[in-house]
Design goal:
2 copies of one chain form a homodimer. By secondary structure, chain A is mostly helical. The first copy, chain A, has 2 domains: 71 residues, Arc Repressor Mutant, subunit A; 35 residues, no CATH class. In chain A, 64% of the residues lie in helices and 6% in strands. Chain A has 6 helices and 2 strands. Chain A has a two-stranded antiparallel sheet. The interface between A and B is large, with 38 and 38 residues. The structure holds a DNA duplex.
Chain lengths: 107, 107
DNA sequence: CAGTTATATAACATGCATATTATATAACTG
DNA sequence: CAGTTATATAATATGCATGTTATATAACTG
């Protein structure tokens, strides 16, 4: 599985996006991350494994705890790929014939 | 399924990303999109349905053909969500204690 | 050391995603 | 109109993702 496959696939799950949103506020342990969800701890552990495998989070060992935090380079690769679309889209958006085609379609 | 679920989920598939990359070069019909892949036409039709459902592409009717193009607003919502992470990541990256924690983990 | 806490892993159920083949539909073309 | 082309849909197979419960492991705590 390509790295982009893993990253986008990981982001496709709302639980995992919520976990990332939580981690955007700062480091958290597995139990802290599991707490807000109506889901068992093993389920959260697996989500974290997916996020780690996708390079979106990092973990350290601190006694029995495994605090998680966002991976600093996580978003860069995704942004790079999206950049290709962004460029085309903004270019198309300014081309008259495309705008007219879009208007015709919407009728 | 949330709109972000659909978008990220659609982007998780390499065939669909390749289709989007192709559409970044300009409009194309189903057959044109199917040609480079070792995959049947119905399979491509379903991928296009997924991309359309995720709001990533638009289609018009032109005789028997259904030319596809990128949806101008496709990437915006994704970018918006990623923005949240981007902000935190760049902030963390500049905080001394986080940098030190990262270094310690890497030992 | 015994008990508890934090986390991971295994076994299992279930449903969804994706591909295939076969077929339907609708529009061109001679 | 008959045949072909462009695309969609149905039926089906299969595998992967995700959740659960039960259990293992390793580190704290009294």
């Amino acid at each position: 599985m390509s790295s982009l496959d893993a990253a986008f696939s990981a982001l496709a799950d709302p639980t995992r996006r919520a976990i990332l949103a939580r981690l955007a506020l700062g480091e958290a342990t597995v139990m802290e991350l599991a707490e807000p969800f109506e889901m068992t701890q093993p389920a959260i552990s697996r989500h974290l494994k997916v996020l780690e495998g996708a390079g979106l989070i990092l973990r350290r060992v601190e006694g029995t705890k495994r605090p998680c935090r966002l991976a600093p380079t996580a978003v860069a690769e995704i942004d790079q790929w999206l950049g290709m679309l962004r460029q085309t889209l903004s270019a198309n958006y300014n081309r008259l014939d495309d705008v007219l085609a879009a208007m015709r379609t919407e009728e």
